[in-house]
Amino acid sequence: MKKKLHIEVLRIIAIFLVIFNHTGTVGFQAYTQTNNKKLYVLYLFMAIICKIAVPIFFMISGALLLGREESIIEVYKKRISR
């Protein structure tokens, strides 16, 4: 299957969003314990933006499965036999 550049770019963005969601927001949360409203708004913005990573992965999976001509039974047989 030929790789599609736009899907690969989306995948890379989603990967970075997941990494930042698990690591970066913890650091931001520690800094926002102070009364700095600008940092708190930045933390909220980044936390909300990072939440779209999982839906992006689902959409990529759906886009890649869209052109397939397999029945659902064939798909499950392939997956189970692994």
TrEMBL record:
<feature type="transmembrane region" description="Helical">
    <location>
        <begin position="43"/>
        <end position="67"/>
    </location>
</feature>
<keyword id="KW-0812">Transmembrane</keyword>
<keyword id="KW-1133">Transmembrane helix</keyword>
<dbReference type="Pfam" id="PF01757">
    <property type="entry name" value="Acyl_transf_3"/>
</dbReference>
<keyword id="KW-0012">Acyltransferase</keyword>
<feature type="transmembrane region" description="Helical">
    <location>
        <begin position="12"/>
        <end position="31"/>
    </location>
</feature>
<dbReference type="GO" id="GO:0016747">
    <property type="term" value="F:acyltransferase activity, transferring groups other than amino-acyl groups"/>
</dbReference>
<keyword id="KW-0808">Transferase</keyword>
<protein>
    <submittedName>
        <fullName>Acyltransferase</fullName>
    </submittedName>
</protein>
<dbReference type="InterPro" id="IPR002656">
    <property type="entry name" value="Acyl_transf_3_dom"/>
</dbReference>
<keyword id="KW-0472">Membrane</keyword>
<feature type="domain" description="Acyltransferase 3">
    <location>
        <begin position="7"/>
        <end position="82"/>
    </location>
</feature>
